[in-house]
Amino acid sequence: MANLTCKLGVLSRPDGSAMLCEDETTVLVGIYGPVEVKMQKIQIDKASVECHYRPKSGAPAVGDRLFESLIRNICEASLVASLYPRSAVLVTIQEMHNSGSLVSCAVNAACMACLNSGIDMKCMFAAVTCFLTKAEELTLTPPRNEKDIKALFVFVFDNNKGRIIASHTEGCFSQEQFEEAISLSKEESKNVFIFYKKTLLDEK
Questions:
Q1: Adjacent-strand bridge partners of 92
Q2: Can you tell me the distance from the alpha carbon of 54 to that of 182, in angstroms, rounded to the nearest whole number?
Q3: Collapsing DSSP states into helix, strand and coil, what is residue 148?
Q4: pTM to 2 decimals?
Q5: For residue range 94-131, what is the model confidence (pLDDT) as tens digits?
Q6: What are phi and psi of 109, to 5 degrees?
Q7: Tens digits of residue pLDDT in 72-93
Q8: How many CA atoms lie within 13 A of 152 on its CB side?
Q9: FRET pair for 124, CA 20 to 30 Å: which of 115, 138, 147, 193?
Q10: Is the distance from CB of 163 to CB of 157 less than 8 angstroms?
Q11: Which long-range contacts (CB under 8 A, 24 or more apart) does 138-144 make?
């Protein structure tokens, strides 16, 4: 299991915030909302969800826009957006350090920030990164050398039925390895949900 640590309410301006560390990867997330929405983005039946990702240094690249879209879709599916029509929920993500599990760390930090904000949610969500090494081994621990990674899998599960609500893959792998990665990640997601509950209880 990844070594997880989390601090809630670390930022004063957002409605909810969380700084989460997954091994050596660290991400800071702030949730604003529901807030007023620009006229061109208004939805009459639900809140619109916006996500902004800031890398550790430099401007966001094309790949970073993909992560924004992924996290926005996850939050949109997990929040009870219909309770907040004609408004917006803003998710801001700041990369602090990346040792290989950036996407799953950002997703999990977003879930903790949502819980910290008190916004209504249909479910909690937990992301797990699984690595396929060039030795054809699946591991949840990021290899020290990035060149040793043959493929990368990120799976996001809900806490209601353990369903996959999002996934992201990179590299070359077989169908069997894909299914094995799902099984390994699903088992690990249970530990992430246990960590969420423990963190929330410790904050009370």
A1: 30, 52
A2: 29
A3: helix
A4: 0.93
A5: 999 998 899 999 999 999 999 999 999 999 999 999 99
A6: -65, -35
A7: 999 988 999 888 888 889 999 9
A8: 18
A9: 138
A10: yes
A11: 138/177, 138/180, 138/181, 138/184, 140/1, 140/2, 140/184, 140/185, 140/188, 141/2, 141/23, 142/23, 142/25, 142/99, 142/100, 142/101, 143/100
Residue 10: both structure tokens together: 């670390």
Q: What is the pLDDT of residue 1?
A: 65
Would you say how long the chain is, in residues? 204
- What string of DSSP letters covers 88-119? EEEEEEEEEE-SS-HHHHHHHHHHHHHHHHT-
- Residue 86 · residue 104 · CB < 8 Å: no
Helix, strand or coil for residue 45?
coil
| The two structure tokens encoding residue 137 | 């081994």
Crossing angle (nearest 10°) for helices 102-117 and 175-203: 30
Q: Which residue has the tokens 């992924």?
A: 70
pLDDT at 155: 97
Q: By percentage, how much of the chain surpasses pLDDT 90?
A: 69
Residues 26-67: pLDDT tens digits? 999 999 988 887 776 777 778 888 999 999 888 777 778 888
